[in-house]
Design goal:
The complex is a heterodimer of chains A (641) and B (187).
Chain A: E1 6-11, E2 14-19, E3 24-32, E4 35-38, E5 44-49, E6 52-57, E7 62-68, E8 75-78, E9 84-88, H1 93-98, E10 103-107, E11 113-117, E12 128-130, E13 136-140, E14 144-149, E15 159-162, E16 166-174, E17 177-184, E18 192-198, E19 207-211, E20 216-221, E21 227-233, E22 247-254, E23 260-264, E24 271-276, E25 283-287, E26 293-297, E27 303-307, E28 314-317, E29 323-327, E30 336-340, E31 345-350, E32 357-360, E33 366-371, E34 381-386, E35 391-396, E36 400-405, H2 420-425, H3 430-439, H4 453-456, H5 460-463, H6 478-491, H7 536-556, H8 564-568, H9 573-588, H10 591-613, H11 620-627, H12 629-640
Antiparallel strand pairs in A: 1-2, 1-36, 2-3, 4-5, 5-6, 6-7, 8-9, 9-10, 10-11, 12-13, 13-14, 14-15, 16-17, 17-18, 18-19, 20-21, 21-22, 22-23, 24-25, 25-26, 26-27, 28-29, 29-30, 30-31, 32-33, 33-34, 34-35
Helix pairs in contact in A: 10-12
Chain B: H1 18-31, H2 36-58, H3 64-79, H4 90-93, H5 98-102, H6 106-112, H7 119-127, E1 131-133, E2 136-137, E3 153-155, H8 168-186
Antiparallel strand pairs in B: 1-2, 1-3
The chains are: A alpha+beta (641), B mainly alpha (187).
């Protein structure tokens, strides 16, 4: 059953639904509001209009109910089965006057307020968590965690767990048990403890650990709830290495006893982000100074795969677990790498420089990047891409408050298919890409090829034009004109022979060197100090006629079809003599015998190439043999004619 | 009954050199050491390793002794975590410094894994028998932690931080408070 995929965005006053795959606005589905929150199923949305919370059904796009609020909520949350709603408001003088509480629990169908509780803390969220059955709710106090029964809230707490100084807590269902996690900070001498209890038995913890150096410790469960990651952070770093304090990562694993095993993941550098795979028990960590390392850890907390690529900040998994996107926004250059987790290869690189929100659709067919008003006051808007990099929609606003894909239950969508071509063309090396460019004169970019921005670089065709603006001669001042002409006269333009495959311009006998050195590999461009200073016009004519025409022709031919002279011009003078000798000798002999001998040599060279691909070391003599391969191939072709 | 003895440290040649004294004092403060001897001890071990590496580098590449002993030296250093996994050549052994060795002591590892508030607190915890590597209680702050056992550093199961019974003073106080409460209730 495939449901329609929804994308929502919220400007200063309005809230819109958009539907895949075209993402056009639906007419009857705009609401007024600034804040909104999805339920965990994705069936309902709660939109906040001043003093009215509207709950909307996402399939019909019609109103389900409205709730009347007294103050603006800071946080809105649904229960797992969408029957109840929590709102948390910041404690202000209004609350004092009317003796009202902060935390409120509502019933979504009727719109009634069930209970109000007072709580002062704003920095710690979550303060109230539902159980999955919707029978219990756990609420934080200053010195205890209180459990209420949702059907009879006014009676009071059913159970309580007392502990002073609770900073973090979590309440989760694992298989058949309910687990409670508490982190409380003690004094200097005692240290701070993290504990996990099974629901009704609060006397014996299933896991407990004391740490001296942590102020906060939050827990991140895997999909099974059998493994968890604890990230402890301290406000002050006593060594003075980091200004913002130090962080540590710990790993928990539930054993057959029921108890948890504790282990330090072992990362000493700054941790940028870490996240669980939503399908497996593995997680990926980005840590270190830029370019940061991205490493995948196992079931058993051992690293087993390292991602290459550039410097990125953050990661986001698709809900399949099949795609991973690394993003480098914030204080970095930008850019998004998309990896496929079946093949462990990079599929696509998106060259985007701005973004503050990003994520996958539940389909895992679309990936969106949005720039949001909180972070940037300029360039607000969103872009939606497919997983293979095509821009589907792009829209900009003056003010964009939020943009999101509508969540959904896992397993309701069909998986995305990847072509084999995409995987073959993935991870091409720089040289292969350059060769393709030289062959395709038009330099078209295929959508399957990925060329990261730092590797796009400059081809030698472009290298001379970068940095130089083409100006109309009207705008060039006279002085410069004169200077330019004078320079041209002085330097002259010689024709030299560039090294490599360069065709330099310059007269004069350089042995492939002198001033006429080709730039890089590829088209060399020599600027020789010619001995004879010709006029500009004569030089230009010559160059136009010979070089450019030949170049255009040569680009289309393979080297086997070239006439002898052109083929020889790829080599230096010294080698040319050798080749000419060899060719003369071969003309005298039997062509067939010669061809047989040459084919033997080519077989040896192929064997050497296999060794090279197996990363075995070769002698210098073996390396020169490989270089001589094209000579033999050309001869065979020539003799066959 | 008879134990083999050998010297483990070597005093410096010149006693009063401002640079050297400052540098050693910094090291002592950074790693929470007790005496200068602990610094000279590490200097001595480094010197011995460098000597053997230098000797091996003078031999030819194919020499069986170089291959065998070089590989053994590199293996020992990587197991202790001093040498990187990607720097498996004898030339890199000659670029090691003292900080690489001092980072692998139990005292610094306890501090860096978050079990202690400061380096000095770490030394106290170790000496007061709170810390175990795996299941083995370790009392020695200069225990060189291997890479495999780095993840198993934690409070031992018998210490009050790790789930054992509370310490002597706490037990005494509990008894006193217990007596007080009983006295009050009676009244």
């Amino acid at each position: 059953m495939s449901k329609p995929i929804l994308f929502t965005h919220c400007t200063d006053q309005e809230f819109h639904f958009l539907e895949a795959p075209n993402f056009t606005k639906l007419e009857s589905s705009t609401y007024n509001g600034q804040k909104y929150k999805f339920s965990k199923d994705g069936k309902f949305v709660a939109i906040y209009d001043p003093l009215n919370l509207v709950i909307v059904n996402t399939q019909n796009k019609k109103r389900h109910s409205t709730l009347k609020m007294y103050h603006t909520p800071y946080v809105i949350e649904f229960s797992p089965k969408n029957n109840y709603l929590i709102t948390f408001e910041l404690y202000s003088s209004k609350h004092k006057k009317e003796n009202m509480g902060n935390l409120a629990i509502w019933d979504t169908k009727s719109g009634k307020e069930l209970i109000r509780i007072q709580s002062y803390q704003k920095e710690i969220w979550p303060q109230a968590i539902f159980s999955q059955d919707e029978t219990l709710i756990a609420i934080l106090n200053q010195s205890s965690v209180a459990f209420y029964n949702l059907k009879c809230l006014n009676i009071g707490p059913v159970k309580k767990k007392n502990q002073k100084g609770i900073r973090n807590f979590d309440f989760v269902q694992a298989d058949n048990e309910l687990l409670l996690y508490i982190f409380s900070k003690g004094g200097k001498t005692v240290g701070s403890t993290a504990e996990i209890f099974v629901y009704p038995e609060f006397s014996t913890p299933v896991f407990s650990q004391t740490l001296m150096n942590s102020d906060k410790m939050s827990i991140y469960w895997s999909f099974n709830k059998r493994c968890a990651l604890l990230s402890s952070s301290s406000d002050i770093d006593m060594t003075g290495n980091r200004y913002y304090g130090s962080t540590n990562l710990y790993w928990l694993n539930r054993q057959n006893n029921g108890k948890f095993k504790f282990q330090n993941v072992g990362i000493t550098e700054t941790i940028h982000s870490f996240k669980w795979n939503p399908v497996k028990n593995e997680f990926c960590v980005i840590y270190g100074s830029m370019p940061a390392k991205k490493i995948l850890y196992d079931d058993l907390c051992e690293p087993y795969f390292e991602f290459g690529g550039g410097s990125r900040n953050d990661q986001s998994w698709s809900s399949d677990g099949k795609f991973l996107a690394f993003t480098g926004f914030g204080n970095l250059n930008g850019g998004v790498e998309i990896w496929s987790m079946e093949h462990y290869k990079q599929i696509k690189f998106l060259d985007e420089s701005f973004g503050s929100q990003y994520g996958w659709s539940e389909d895992s067919k679309f990936f969106y990047i949005a720039v949001v008003r909180e972070k940037l006051k300029v360039d607000n808007g969103y872009k939606i891409f497919t997983t293979f990099g095509k821009l589907v929609k792009h829209e900009q606003f003056d003010v964009l408050v939020d943009a999101q894909f509508c969540p959904a239950i896992k397993g309701t969508f069909e998986p995305v298919e990847i072509n084999e071509e995409v995987i073959k063309t993935a991870n091409r090396t720089y040289r292969q890409e350059k060769k393709k460019k030289e062959l395709n004169q038009n330099n078209e970019q295929n959508s399957n090829l990925f060329i990261p921005s730092f590797k796009k670089g400059r081809t030698t065709q472009q290298s001379s034009s970068i940095g130089k603006k083409e100006r109309h001669p009207m705008f060039i001042k006279k002085k410069k004109k004169v200077k330019v002409e004078q320079e041209k006269k002085e330097k002259g333009r010689g024709r030299g022979r560039g090294r490599g495959r360069g065709r330099g311009r310059g007269i004069g006998k350089g042995r492939g060197r002198g001033r006429g050195r080709g730039r890089g590999r590829g088209r060399g461009r020599g600027r020789g100090k010619g001995k004879e200073n010709k006029n500009e016009k004569e030089i230009q004519k010559e160059n136009q006629t010979n070089n450019q025409k030949n170049r255009q022709n040569l680009n289309n031919m393979s080297f086997e079809e070239m006439p002898n002279k052109e083929f020889l011009s790829y080599f230096g003078n010294y080698k040319q003599d050798e080749i000419i000798k060899m060719q003369k000798e071969n003309d005298k002999k039997d062509p067939q015998k010669v061809i047989r001998n040459l084919k033997k040599k080519i077989k040896e060279i192929n064997a050497l190439k296999k060794k090279k691909s197996n990363k075995q070391k070769l002698n210098n003599a073996q390396k020169t043999k490989i270089k001589q391969e094209p000579i033999y191939k050309y001869e065979i072709h020539r003799l066959k004619k | 009954m008879s134990r083999r003895k050998s010297k483990t440290f070597k005093t410096p040649r010149r006693p009063y050199q401002k640079e050297r004294l400052d540098h050693e004092l910094k090291v002592v403060g950074k790693y929470g050491l007790r005496t200068k001897r602990e610094v000279w001890r590490v200097h001595y071990t480094l010197a011995k390793i460098r000597k053997s590496a230098r000797n091996l580098l003078t031999l030819e590449e194919n020499d069986p002794r170089r291959i065998f002993e070089g590989a053994a030296l590199l293996r020992r250093l990587t197991n202790l975590g001093i040498l990187d996994e990607q720097k498996q050549r004898l030339e890199y052994v000659l670029t090691l410094t003292i900080d690489d060795f001092l980072d692998r002591r139990l005292q610094t590892q306890v501090y860096k894994s978050g079990l202690a508030r400061s380096i000095h607190h770490a030394r106290v915890l170790i000496k007061q028998r709170h810390i175990s590597v795996g299941s083995q209680l370790v009392n020695v702050p200069s225990f060189m932690v291997k890479i495999e056992s780095q993840k198993h550093i934690g409070f031992s199961s018998k210490s009050p931080f790790g789930g054992g019974r509370p310490g002597r003073l706490k037990r005494k106080l509990n008894v006193m408070r217990g007596n007080k409460n009983e006295v009050e209730e009676e009244d």
